[in-house]
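Extended Data, panel c. Modelled sequence:
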Amino acid sequence: MQRFKTLVALLGLTLTASMGTVAQGAVGSIGALLSTGYYINFENSSPIKLAPDAGAADPYHTYTGCMESVVSSNFNARLLVSVRATSLAKGDWEVDLYPFMIPTGQTKVRLCVVGKNVRIENLAAGQNNVKVAEITIEVIAQ
């Protein structure tokens, strides 16, 4: 019984019982508090697989790829995207995200990237999954 009295004292509860009786039922309540802050999550953040763009003016140096994801957020957000080359292949990169305005809840988005003047001949032959660009997503609360 001593351990129970100590726990009750630490929790700040008041328990009144006569000697020789056992208290039954609810003797108090304890709240659970949470600071929510801002939350945003991309369900799919796997790398985008690029392929040659057969319809481009220079299909040997133009690569494109897209991915879809579900964005979950507890606030309205505007997403800004940018892309930069990260390898010896260099290139001129563009990225597009639709939609870029994300309401509270879940939203399906599509992210596409295009690299022009990508010089794969500057990369070692026979490699797989070479990271040639990096996309940055900036979140602005609305």
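Strands lie at 40-42, 51-52, 63-73, 77-85, 92-98, 101-102, 105-116, 133-141. This feature is highlighted in the accompanying rendering.
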